[in-house]
Write a structure and sequence with these properties.
The complex is a heterodimer of chains A (about 550) and B (about 300). Chain A is of the alpha+beta class and about 550 residues long. Chain A contains 17 helices and 19 strands. Chain A has a domain of about 270 residues: 3-Layer(aba) Sandwich (D-Maltodextrin-Binding Protein, domain 2). Chain B is mainly alpha-helical and about 300 residues long. Classes of the chains: A alpha+beta (about 550), B mainly alpha (about 300). The interface between A and B is large, with 64 and 54 residues.
Chain lengths: ~550, ~300
């Protein structure tokens, strides 16, 4: 049936669906050049790489976003009512243990269906200079800047990426802008390095049914410009963030009642009760809602923001541990953060200034780290992965962070549906020698996956029933593949698509070689020139399949 | 002469229009939707994609977008990047750094390369000549990034003579090491070119006559030999200056030089059409301008070359 859907997509004239059909019948390794006007010989890949960096430390973040029926980032177009049911049970669970139990059972189902093939968790490989102390990186890979001290009293310098968007919480979704916002704003909650969360601005966040929340904030707090932080500062900020689909984080408010994808003024079901209290009505119960409130999109905004959002984006005013030193933001070069005297929360800075420095390449940043010209580097370049522990000694940092890597096989891809599909997916998973690839290619900076979340996120377990499918088992893989061939014989090439601009080629080649050697089929990487090209292809294919399904 | 310059400058107009059009068309043909890239592995809603495409005119057809861009350019506005920065400001910030780096590299090539080439040519077959031959051979065969990493590690980190990367404001002193690395490859060619040219000129009739008139070699060498040998070297240096301005991306990356090459690289990654087109177009114009200067310089070096109205 699924194949027929794709055929309908072809009839409807969508190029991507045509590519999807061609995927298994063409041999070789075609390189895609154009997406909308490409000739029919271009092959849409069977599988494509997917990475997920957690936005907030909760298992629900990844499980709902990637695999819940109809979720926007559900690239597999996966839909299993039993899974959805367990996730919803987890989201309404009254205790954390109960929630973890349901999420574990939901993952058991994922292990059976394998909408994606889990690969490994990422670790952070970084380091710090000999001039600084108390350097710690969080679960989200950001350094905890406020703790760092420097003996000579000069500004602490840290590696930074130029923000890709104006510095507005509702419009910042990448690490460069996020690092600044995370330090100049204080949210309702904040995260410790290990991913646990505590109240920051919030006094209490309570609900009887996990759906209707009452949030009380501490009184007497102010923004760096002296204006008070009130319930209104949160409500107006969130309403504004949901008002316009041009804002990159607008979809974040979709779990609040009243949200419309098209935006509109004051659509969200938020109500100010008094100066320090407001209520939030969610579309559906969500027990981990308080955890998510530490993500930058939920930060409060001062009155001055609404007068001129554009100007604010260049010189934001927050309520966090730091504030931006006046005129210190030199684009593509650096920004200086100095302590915000009006901040009274738990993240009090121990230093007097932090300079975030943009580097044109990680290699340059690493050279400066070795020369003690840079204090904190959150990512060593690939060229130094093998040597950085020797170079830096006890100043090298390697720790797990909340990043999950997998490759997704879209529902409806030929030969990957129904019973045949389950067999083939399991066979592929067992044909990948994860320990060897993480060791050889990544020098141990990746750890083979054991579940569908991350070991730094509370609730993680390496013994979920069904996780044996992640173990390297060539004999079983061949056996399952043969069983699948008995249902419908395999032909063509298994292709794993990736973006060639992200340093993925080595592991993709190793992975497809592992599959090729074990299963004895043609398998190859399918490079797209850049990330935009890969995502466009994935999105077009999703649209085509959805359109065909009506 | 003046007429020649005016004509060459007027020729720049079609070059400008043609290059903007071609580059715009090429960027337009790049596969992939830049809006989707902005969301990473997250998938935006349909409404978000539509709104952002409208905001950046990505939903318009090619000609509409091109003429919108040209309209902005003629008002002196080279466009705005996806993150709201003005391309004018980016160019004002990055271009002088690249220009200084290229200038420094060309000066190093000229001083070191021409001197070494001159000595090699005058003492053909001597020890210096042989040494220069070997050194230039090594420089030509080394890829630039190898040279850059080795220089950065050895002179920057081990010996500590230079800062390993370029610091804030890109002071001249920080630019010396990257400039030497940038200069190295073409310097080898300059040495060889100068050497060959000097050998050839030394055997020319007018040099023998100068010596025959009894002029001392401190007059013959600079005035008669060197000046006449510099014409091919000048062409080479000019071409290299153009290349240095356009394509120092690798070196800029390794030494953290906040220059144009690096900005262009990031813009291409973002599919940031106005930024790519504006930067490349400016580079084309600079290249054209440098070539004009070189052609004029010919006349100075060799009075036989004259630009007159025909």
């Amino acid at each position: 049936m699924k194949n027929k859907r794709l055929a309908l997509g072809l009839a409807a004239g969508t190029a991507a669906a045509a590519l999807a059909l061609a995927g298994c019948s063409t041999g070789g390794t075609p390189t895609p050049t154009a997406t909308d006007s490409g000739p029919a010989s271009l092959a849409y890949p069977n599988a494509f790489r997917t990475g997920w960096q957690f936005d907030y430390p909760s298992q629900a973040n990844i499980l709902t976003a990637l695999y819940l029926t109809g979720s926007g980032s559900n690239d597999a177009l996966y839909s299993n009512p039993a899974f959805d049911d367990l996730i919803n049970k987890g989201l309404t669970a009254s205790s954390f243990d109960e929630q973890t139990k349901y999420f574990g059972q939901a993952q058991e189902i994922l292990f059976q269906d394998l909408p994606a093939i889990p690969l490994w968790y990422s670790s952070l490989a970084g380091g710090f200079s000999s001039k600084v102390q108390n350097v710690q990186f969080g679960w989200d890979s950001w350094p905890l800047l406020e703790q760092v001290t420097k003996a000579d009293g000069s500004p602490v310098t840290a590696h930074w990426n130029e923000p890709e968007n104006p510095l507005i919480p509702a419009n910042t979704n990448e690490v460069g802008g996020g690092l600044v916002l995370n330090n100049i704003f204080a949210g309702l909650v904040y995260y410790e390095a290990d991913g646990s969360y505590h109240n920051d601005v919030a006094e209490s966040i309570e609900s009887d049914d996990s759906q209707h929340w009452t949030i009380k904030i501490k009184s007497g707090q102010t923004f760096a410009d002296g204006s008070p932080v009130t319930a209104d500062s949160f409500v107006k900020a969130w309403q504004w963030g949901a008002s316009d689909p041009e804002l990159l984080n607008q979809w974040w408010f979709a779990n609040i009642d009243g949200y419309s994808p098209d935006g509109g003024e004051n659509t969200l079901a938020l109500k100010v009760v008094d100066d320090t209290t407001f209520t939030v009505d969610l579309v559906a119960p969500q027990a981990d809602f308080p955890v998510s409130l530490g993500y930058t999109v939920f930060m409060p905004l001062p009155e001055s923001f609404f007068a001129d959002p554009d100007a604010f984006g260049q010189a934001p005013i927050g309520n966090g541990p730091y504030q931006i030193a006046p005129d210190s933001w030199i684009h593509d070069s650096r920004i200086s953060l100095v302590p915000n005297p009006s901040y009274s929360g738990p993240r009090k800075p121990a230093n007097s200034q932090v300079d975030l420095v943009v580097y044109t390449s990680l290699d340059a940043a690493y050279a400066d780290l070795l020369g003690d010209n840079l204090d904190i580097l959150d990512q060593v370049p690939a060229s130094a992965l093998a040597t950085f522990k020797k170079d830096l000694g006890d100043r090298a940092v390697e720790q797990a962070i909340a990043v999950f890597q997998s490759f997704t096989i879209m529902e409806g891809a030929p030969h990957f549906t129904g019973e045949e599909g389950k067999l083939r997916r399991a066979a592929l998973s067992m044909a990948i020698n994860r320990p060897e690839i993480t060791d050889v290619i990544f020098q141990g900076t990746r750890t083979p996956a054991k579940d569908w979340t991350s070991p730094v996120i509370a609730g993680w377990s390496d013994s979920i029933p069904g996780s044996e499918v992640l173990d390297y088992n060539p004999d079983k893989a061949v056996e399952l593949w043969k069983q699948a061939d008995a249902i419908s014989p395999w032909s063509g090439t298994f292709q794993l698509a990736y973006n060639a601009d992200g340093g993925h080629q080595e592991w993709v080649d190793a992975t497809v070689n592992s599959i090729k050697n074990v299963l004895g089929i043609d398998a190859a990487g399918l490079p797209y020139p850049d990330f935009a090209g890969l995502r466009t292809e994935v999105n077009d294919a999703k649209k085509a399949v959805r359109a065909a399904a009506g | 002469m003046a007429w020649y310059i005016v004509r060459r400058v007027l020729q720049g107009i079609p070059v400008f229009l043609g290059s903007t059009f071609l580059i715009y068309a090429m960027v337009f043909a790049m596969p992939g939707n830049p809006v989707l890239r902005m969301f990473g592995d997250r998938t935006p809603t349909e409404a978000q994609i539509a709104a952002l495409e409208a905001k950046f005119h990505l939903d318009q057809n090619f000609f509409t977008r091109y003429f919108l861009y040209l309209g902005d350019v003629f008002q002196g506005n080279l466009g705005t990047t996806f993150n709201g920065q003005s391309v004018n400001e980016i160019l004002i910030r990055t271009f002088p750094t690249t220009l200084r780096l290229a200038l420094l590299a060309v000066i190093i090539q000229l001083v070191v390369g021409v001197t070494a080439g001159l000595i090699s040519g005058l003492r053909k077959g001597g020890i210096f000549d042989h040494a220069a031959l070997i050194v230039t051979l090594i420089l030509i065969s080394l890829p630039v990034f190898v040279l850059a990493f080795v220089a950065q590690w050895f002179f920057g980190i081990e010996l500590g003579w230079f800062r390993p990367t370029v610091g804030q404001g890109a002071p001249w002193s920080d630019l010396i090491l990257p400039a030497i690395v940038l200069a190295a490859l073409n310097m080898a060619y300059v040495v060889r070119l100068t050497r060959g040219s000097v050998i050839e000129t030394s055997q020319a009739d007018f040099v023998r006559m100068a010596y025959g008139k009894g002029l001392p070699s401190r007059r013959v060498v600079p005035v008669h030999v060197l000046r006449n040998s510099l014409i091919p070297v000048t062409t080479n240096l000019a071409a290299d200056f153009g290349i240095l301005i356009v394509g120092a991306t690798v070196t800029e990356g390794i030494f953290n030089v906040p220059g144009v090459g690096n900005e262009l690289f990031k813009a291409i990654n973002r599919h940031d059409t106005p930024e790519i087109v504006s930067i490349v177009t400016i580079l084309v114009i600079v290249y054209v301008f440098v070539n004009l200067l070189i052609d004029l310089l010919y006349g100075v070096l060799d009075p036989r070359i004259r630009y007159v109205k025909k």
